[in-house]
From TrEMBL:
The keyword Transmembrane applies. The keyword Transmembrane helix applies. Residues 180-307 form the Type II secretion system protein GspF domain. It is a multi-pass membrane protein. InterPro entries: T2SS_GspF_dom (IPR018076). It comes from the Bacteria. This is Hypothetical putative tight adherence TadC-related transmembrane protein. The chain crosses the membrane at residues 20-45, 108-130, 142-161, 292-316. Keywords: Cell membrane, Membrane, Transmembrane, Transmembrane helix. It comes from Photobacterium profundum (strain SS9). It is found in: Cell membrane.
Length: 322
């Protein structure tokens, strides 16, 4: 406590004011902790939820796990309005990134912002505790490092989420041409489109479990009564494969008209395979540029030291002898 008051005194230059600020912060922390604890206990001891769980015909272990998970989800849901941003644009963008990264649960958005807040709190107290073991640091430096750690903790989850979403989209994009080839073969063999899509979803699991799962979701939605065009549009929205819009339009028209899709799917399969090859060639063309930095910093100094170093030493010795 004295250490924190000393830090605050270094900022406000008044010990009495620093004590009042510390007492205010402590009061706010206690009130916040009490409210969170009350929300948690209220959700855990809700009689309606207890009654619903007692009426369910599930095993004891499964019921216990479900109750704990439900209590946690309900607690996070009740805190959603406090931890999520008010901007709908930011919420929608984050929700889209979570879908592209494979997190489609209802509470995924709330969990994401809860993780960000927890990381910020850990960063704040981590820097304060670490600064206690470094007494040579001034108050201004401690404040700077605290703000820097909190900023990193705020933006790090966004960076990780964007990387995961981009990696998953790339994985799905690389596997889709192979799935399209299988779809051409199965439709030309006489299967209906939905049966062919289900067969492809099962066969592609060894190559890309993510794409297999997404295709199986499409098949389940169609069986439950969702129109095929809407299910395919939702597939594009979940996966982020925007280049499939044209394919979805043609499939929808073929389903409505009852025409054969073999030739159309074959053309699209060739096109997607060419796109995948072009992306691979593009990445290969970038290797030369990416190799400049390691060549200049790691390889060339050692090469010139070995190749030209003895000659330079001999020249210096020759001129030094004269």
């Amino acid at each position: 406590m004295d250490y924190l008051i000393t830090l605050i005194t270094g900022l406000v230059s008044d010990e009495n004011l620093a004590r009042w600020i510390f007492l205010g912060l402590a009061f706010i922390s206690v009130v916040t902790f009490t409210l969170c604890l009350a929300l948690l206990i209220t959700n855990l001891l809700n009689p309606l939820k207890k009654r619903l769980h007692s009426l369910s015909h599930i095993s004891k272990d499964t019921t216990k796990k479900s109750a704990e998970s439900s209590a946690l989800d309900n607690t996070l849901e009740s805190m959603d309005k406090y931890i999520s941003p008010s901007s709908m644009k930011e919420r929608n963008q984050t929700k889209t990134l979570l879908m592209h990264a494979g997190y489609e649960q209802k509470q995924a958005l709330t969990n994401f912002y809860a993780i960000k807040i927890i990381l910020v709190i850990f960063a704040f107290f981590g820097v304060l505790i670490s600064s206690k073991f470094l007494p040579e640091l001034s108050t201004q430096k401690i404040l700077f490092y605290t703000l820097l750690a909190m900023a990193i903790a705020t933006f790090l989850p966004n960076f990780v989420l964007q990387k995961k979403a981009k990696k998953r989209i790339q994985t799905l994009s690389n596997a889709f041409p192979d799935a399209l080839d299988l779809l051409v073969v199965t439709t030309e063999a006489g299967l209906g489109f939905l049966a062919a899509l289900n067969r492809v979803a099962n066969e592609i699991d060894a190559l890309s479990p993510e794409l297999s799962s997404e295709l199986q979701i499409v098949c389940r939605k169609v069986r439950l009564g969702v129109p095929l065009p809407i299910a395919l549009s939702q597939f594009i929205e979940r996966t982020g494969l925007l280049e499939l819009q044209g394919l979805v339009s043609i499939i929808s028209q073929s389903v409505k008209l009852g025409s054969s899709m073999g030739d159309t799917l074959r053309e699209y399969a060739i096109e997607f395979r060419d796109r995948r090859m072009q992306k691979a060639e593009e990445e290969a063309a970038k290797i030369g540029t990416k190799m400049i930095f390691p060549l200049v910093t790691c390889i060339w100094p050692g090469f010139f030291t070995v190749a030209i170093g003895p000659a330079i030493i001999a020249v210096l010795e020759a001129f030094g002898g004269k």
